[in-house]
Design a protein that fits this description.
This protein is α+β, with helices and mostly antiparallel strands. The protein has 10 helices and 22 strands. Strands 13, 14, 17, 18, 19, 20, 21 and 22 form an 8-stranded antiparallel beta sheet that branches. Strands 2-1-5-4-3 form a 5-stranded antiparallel beta sheet, covered by helices on one side. Strand 9 and strand 10 form a beta hairpin. Helix 2 crosses helix 9 and helix 3 runs parallel beside helix 9.
Length: 472
C-alpha cells in the first residue's frame, strides 16, 4: 500500500446470530457505503441483512489494550489476505476526481470474545493532478455552499458532555476542541468554532467534522514517522485518545516567509528581526518567499496567546528535556517534509503548520491533537504560486487566511472587545475551502451530514455508548 494514496478503513461488525449488533457499537459509527463502490464492498464479504451485519465503523491507527480489541484500529495484529481490483473510484458529481484509479484491498480479522471485525482497507492511487479550478467554480462548490447555509443554525459551538455522561470527569475548553477527562482516556470533541488572533471569530458549518476527518487521514499516513495517541473515533466530530503528558510547547514549522498575525514570520521579519526562535534569517527576503530550509519556531502554550520561544529557552525553563525536544523537533521536521511532498503531489503547497506532542505512559513521544488541517496549517494552490509571487501578488490560499484578513480590515482583532459578525458569504466560503482541501488531498468525498438532529445530541449518544463499550 502506498503512503500517498487514500486509505479508508471499513470495519464490519459480524454479530452472533440472534443477537443485536447494536449492543456492541453505536450506530453512528456507520460509514456511508458510497465511500466505496458497492461492487467492491458486498462481494468481498457477501453481506446481507440475514448475516447479522448491522454497522460499519471507522477507527484510526493505534495499538490498544486487549480488553479494547472490540474497537479496531489501523494497526491490526495480522493480515489474512490481499485482493486487487482494477475498478476505478471517483466521488460522484465532483470534477476534482475524474482519473482512473487502481484499488488495493487488505482484509484483516481481529478475534476476541467480542464480535469479529472484518477490516477492509481501500487504497486508491491517483494518476493525475486534481482540477483545482473546482475551488472557485464547480457544481460541488455550489452543493457545499447551499448545504452550509442550511446548517449555519446547527453549528457545534459549545458542548457539555460531562453534564450528561457520568464517565466524563471534567471539561477543558480549548480554542476549537472541548477535551473531556475519561479516566485513562481523553475524549476530544472538535467543534465548529473558528479561531484566529487567539480568540473565536465565528462558527463554520461542518468544520469540526472536516478537521477530525483530515487529522485522521494524516495520522494514518504518518505513523511511520511518529506514533500517535489515537484510540477510536465514535463520532464524526470526536476522537478518543490515550491520556498523555502533553509538552507545553507547539512546534510551528515554516517553509515560507509569510503571515499576517503578530507572531507570523513575515510580520517579525519586516520589523527587522533576523534571529527568530533561534533561527538566523537571511537578508533581502520578501513576503511569501520560500525559506532556504524549513525551520521550527516554537511557541509556548499559554492560556490566552502563544509566545515565541527558542529551543535553548525551552530546555532552560524546564518545559522539555533536551532529549525530548530533540526527538520531537526531529519528528516535526520529518512530518512537515512528508506533508509538503504529499500536498504538492496533490496540487497544493503546505506552507506552514504546527504540531503538538505528548509523552505516553511508556515514555514514548506521541503525536497528538491534529495534523496538517486547514486550522493548524497554511495551504496555497501550487499551480499559480510561482507566477503570482513573481508579479507581487498574494498566493491563492485554501485556508482561513482570507477570514483573518477580513477581520484585520474591519476591526482590531487583538484589542477590540467586541468583534463584528463575519458575513455569511465568508462563513460558507470557508466551509467550502476546508472541504475542498480535504477532498483534494485525500481524494475522498466529504460526507455532508444529512440529518437535522442537533449535533450535540448525536455526539452525546455516541460517546456514551463508546465509553460504555470500552470500559466493559
Amino acid at each position: 500500500m502506498t503512503t500517498h494514496g487514500l486509505t479508508t478503513c471499513f470495519y464490519t461488525i459480524e454479530s452472533p446470530k440472534n443477537q443485536n449488533p447494536n449492543s456492541y457499537l453505536p450506530s453512528s459509527f456507520n460509514l456511508p457505503k458510497a465511500s466505496v463502490p458497492a461492487s467492491f464492498f458486498k462481494p468481498q464479504h457477501n453481506l446481507s441483512p440475514k448475516d447479522g451485519v448491522k454497522s460499519q465503523i471507522r477507527i484510526i491507527n493505534t495499538t490498544i489494550q486487549q480488553k479494547m480489541a472490540c474497537i479496531p484500529t489501523l494497526n491490526p495484529p495480522k493480515t489474512l489476505g490481499t485482493i486487487t481490483s482494477s475498478s476505478s473510484y471517483s466521488p460522484q458529481n465532483s470534477s476534482s476526481f475524474s482519473s482512473p484509479a487502481k484499488t488495493h484491498f487488505k482484509t484483516t480479522q481481529i478475534s476476541h470474545k467480542f464480535p469479529n471485525f472484518s477490516i477492509v482497507m481501500a487504497t486508491k492511487q491517483q494518476e493525475h493532478e486534481p482540477n483545482l479550478n473546482v475551488l472557485t467554480n464547480s457544481d460541488r462548490r455550489d452543493e457545499v455552499i447551499i448545504a452550509a447555509k442550511r446548517s449555519i443554525s446547527n453549528c457545534l459551538s459549545e458542548t457539555d458532555l460531562h453534564l450528561s455522561i457520568p464517565a466524563l470527569k471534567s471539561k477543558t475548553r480549548g480554542k476549537v476542541r472541548d477535551i473531556y477527562d475519561g479516566g485513562d482516556y481523553l475524549v476530544l470533541v472538535t467543534t465548529d468554532r473558528q479561531s484566529a488572533f487567539d480568540r473565536v471569530l465565528a462558527s463554520i458549518p461542518f468544520k469540526g467534522q472536516v478537521l477530525n476527518d483530515t487529522s485522521l487521514w494524516w495520522f494514518n499516513q504518518t505513523q511511520h514517522i511518529a506514533p500517535n495517541a489515537i484510540i477510536a473515533v465514535p463520532d464524526q466530530n470526536v476522537t478518543i485518545a490515550k491520556k498523555c503528558s502533553v509538552f507545553p510547547v507547539e512546534f510551528v514549522v515554516r517553509g515560507y516567509v509569510t503571515g499576517s498575525t503578530d507572531t507570523s514570520l513575515w510580520t517579525v521579519y519586516k520589523n527587522g528581526v533576523r534571529n527568530y526562535c533561534g533561527n538566523v534569517l537571511p537578508e533581502g527576503m520578501v513576503k511569501n518567499e520560500r525559506l532556504p530550509t524549513n525551520i521550527i519556531t516554537p511557541t509556548t502554550k499559554a492560556a490566552d496567546h502563544d509566545v515565541p520561544i527558542s529551543p535553548d529557552e525551552i530546555v532552560q525553563q524546564g518545559l522539555m528535556s533536551q532529549a525530548d525536544y530533540d526527538e520531537a523537533s526531529s519528528k516535526a521536521l520529518r512530518l512537515f517534509e512528508y506533508g509538503q511532498r504529499v500536498a504538492l503531489e496533490h496540487g497544493v503547497i503546505l506552507v506552514d503548520t504546527k504540531y503538538e506532542f505528548g509523552k505516553g505512559p511508556d515514555g514514548s513521544v506521541l503525536l497528538i491533537d491534529e495534523v496538517h488541517t486547514p486550522d493548524s496549517s497554511r495551504y496555497w494552490l501550487a499551480h499559480s504560486y510561482e507566477s503570482r509571487f513573481q508579479n507581487g501578488l498574494e498566493p491563492e490560499n485554501v485556508d482561513k487566511e482570507f477570514l483573518r484578513l477580513w477581520f484585520k480590515n474591519h476591526c482590531n482583532p487583538y484589542e477590540d472587545e467586541v468583534l463584528p459578525d463575519a458575513p455569511e458569504d465568508l462563513v460558507t466560503e470557508l466551509a467550502w475551502r476546508y472541504i475542498f482541501l480535504f477532498e483534494t488531498i485525500t481524494r475522498s468525498r466529504f460526507q455532508i451530514p444529512e440529518t437535522t438532529e442537533p449535533i450535540h445530541d448525536r455526539i452525546t449518544r455516541n460517546v456514551s455508548r463508546a465509553l460504555s463499550l470500552i470500559q466493559n
